[in-house]
Amino acid sequence: MRNSHLLEEKAEINRLLNNIKKEYEEGIQPVLAHNNPKMFGNCHKIPKLKKIQINRGLGLAAQNTNILKKSIEEFTKITGQKPVITKSKKAIAGFKIREDMELGLTVTLRGEKMYTFLTKLIFFTFAQIRDFRGLSVRSFDKAGNYSFGLKEQLIFPEIDYEDVVQVQGFTITLVISSYSKKTVFNNIFNGMVLLKFLRFPLNDSGYYERYESLQDISQVWDRKKHLRRKRWAQE
């Protein structure tokens, strides 16, 4: 029985590696709709990945032409798309920042480039992180989007160690869209469901496996909110 599950898991991973977009449309979407028709009966309610945003803040170092040029080259190699230079909206004298000053880089991936980057990220890049134990399930925002940081660019296969002048990281945001009830719980739950099907390495998602149904989890969240409000009222 255990070997059967291992074979199914390997087959699922191979399908995602082959074409993650096709597997989502032909494999993940029908499974969600079939297993929970009440929540995902409408195809527009099924969570899907809308875009991936990758950001790097350079601060005052962006004024150095060589550093800025090197970061642009790294972004282009990693994402296959030229980044946009982010600039300050107003002057802040205490931080020596002028208005319209170059401070960082950002890239927004959609379509095929988004799925290509996601495949590389899940199955190749995370494996290069030393002592990697997964990502926290608590990094979802209220809209159900997932954000996390990477400390260095060397974990990407396109980057040559000898070409790196300065070790710099990224902030990556997976923007997830779902047309469910606009509540924080539903947004986060939909994001967790999607990332779990995509084999995203969430290390503490097993916290919710102790509950038998979605209603049990919802009740726990309601109790926690009630206790927080009670504590705030006492303070």
Automatic annotation (TrEMBL):
Coiled coil: none annotated. GO terms for biological process: translation. InterPro entries: Ribosomal_uL5, Ribosomal_uL5_bac-type, Ribosomal_uL5_C, Ribosomal_uL5_dom_sf, Ribosomal_uL5_N. SUPFAM superfamilies: RL5-like. It is found in: Plastid, Chloroplast. Residues 42-98 form the Large ribosomal subunit protein uL5 N-terminal domain. The keyword Ribosomal protein applies. Its main location: plastid. GO terms for molecular function: rRNA binding; structural constituent of ribosome. It holds the Pfam family Ribosomal_L5_C. The keyword Ribonucleoprotein applies. GO terms for cellular component: chloroplast; ribonucleoprotein complex; ribosome. Keywords: Chloroplast, Plastid, Ribonucleoprotein, Ribosomal protein, RNA-binding, rRNA-binding. Residues 103-195 form the Large ribosomal subunit protein uL5 C-terminal domain. Belongs to the universal ribosomal protein uL5 family. Binds 5S rRNA, forms part of the central protuberance of the 50S subunit. Part of the 50S ribosomal subunit; contacts the 5S rRNA. This is Large ribosomal subunit protein uL5c. The lineage of its organism: Eukaryota, Sar, Stramenopiles, Ochrophyta, Bacillariophyta.
